[in-house]
Amino acid sequence: MTQPSIPLAAMPGSTTAVVPPQWIPLGFMFASGVGFTGVGFSMWFGADKWVISPFHSATVTTAHMVMLAFLTTAVLGALHQFGPVVGQRPLRSVHVAAWTMVGMIVTGWTLPLGFAHGPEWLVATGAVIGVTTVTLAAWNLSGPLMSRSGGVPVVGLRLSVLYLLITVSFGIVYAFNRQEGWFPLLPTKILAHAHLGILGWLGLTYISVSEKLWPMFLLSHRPSSRSGAIAVGGLAIGVLPLALGLLYTNPPAAWFGAVFVVVGLAAHLFSLASSVRHRRRKLELLHAFLFVSASFLLVGMVLGAIAALGDVDASLRIRIVTAEIAALASWLGLAVIGHSHKIVPFITYSMLRARGVNNHKSGRPLLFGDLYNKKIAWGVLGASVAAFTGIVVGTLVDSPVPIALSGILIAITAITVTTNFIVGARSATPASSTSDQIRQRPSSTSILTKGPS
Amino acid sequence: MDETPSTENIVERAYDALRTVWDPELAIDIVTLGLIYDVRAVDGGVEVDMTMTTPGCPVSDSLPAEATIALQNEFPQMSVWVNVVWDPPWDPSRIGSDGSNITGVLGGI
Predict the structure, then answer these.
(1) Of B40, B66, B86, B94, which to mutate for an interface test with A (greatest number of A Cβ within 10 Å)?
(2) For residue A405, what pLDDT band results from cuts at 50, 70 and 90?
(3) A3–B58: do the CB atoms touch at under 8 Å?
(4) Which end of chain B is more exposed for a tag (fewer CB within 10 A), N or C?
(5) Among residues A261, A290, A410, A341, which one has the least CA distance to residue A74?
């Protein structure tokens, strides 16, 4: 059985006409896999410092590896694919997208290396490159994200990119403050930066994107998407006052923001439950990732509430807050790994089809499921859950052993998941010839869409 | 000299052509998946009404294009119209029994 092989970009109504070349998002995802490996080694070697203080240079190094080299690189890569799809408009420049990828890789490694080993100018240099890169990305993504179509996900993504700009603005000020000493970098100021990045940028992006991805991947026909709108609105409104409240040690502002954030995150969890309830597919790998990812979000929310309301001493409070940040990063990390098992095969499939690879080596049409090993993917799920659990527990009980073991496990997991996708893509057999399948095209061809799109 | 194909023949060949288009996520061809609502032989061409599993899916978005290509390859001298419709909405009950048995991908809640 053969499939047609005329390039889909030539067809009216195809999203392939607006998305960038596949090597752009795949390049980001590969770089994120390498960055995740770096996170593992950084955590392994810095585990003993991690329990000494979350503000130790080794801990700050690992935190920035997680945020930049792993999560932001992956999320920006996904946005370069997803933004044009939902906005139905292309990026402003493919060249800028490529430079953004290079800039993210440089930033994701330069800044942490500067924190870990110095010299101090390396931190400032990494910060400048980071701000430049993010500004370029925001300009480029504004092309598709300024589209009037796309609904709640597009609105959420516009705001999340704005939060990314705010986060890196904080970052560059903090980076230069290390040399200039403009103000004391109190823990609350660091927390403001962390919550802006995790909730305002990465969290809001994930919540916005999931409102589009979950109905698609779960074949979910929900009666209402109101919970998704509340989730996006709650986070978009709440993160800024929360961060400002932390920054200026203003509890009313922080509480005002926190209430909106909690409502938003709760609505996000409700949206997940609704999508699962109204799904039209059996439970599969992605659902498992979503469930454990959501569990870490719940843990993070509970830890955040304990840190804010609990009658605990300062030392324990710092550990709880560190564990909260680790749990929130685990929420997003698992979400990224889980969704990568849908997104990477989809983009790889498009790339192979564009090269004329239509069939699996068995002869039947190529499928997404051919592009990675499912048993290995389940193993990745188990290993990553164990690793993230080890980090949160190790932080809470103040023990470097689980954190070091988690670091080793993360490095192994990152290498495994990246290799799984590369080997999977190579398993597809190139078609012997595609030109003989292309025949003269008729004089009249049309695809009409009636109703919602 | 070519004979003009009958209406029944065109429809049958169109369905066969459409069976070569698979949903790469669900591993089922789009006819068995129940995405094809109607195939008609019209004056000088073939017209298809099809739907998608869920609105806004970038994967499903490529399926009408692939369906069009499959029909073009089958009827190179004819016009092809593929209409994407949403009424009635697709649901799993539209899957042919062979599809659900072969793949086991879809299931109830």
Answers:
(1) B66
(2) very high
(3) no
(4) N
(5) A341
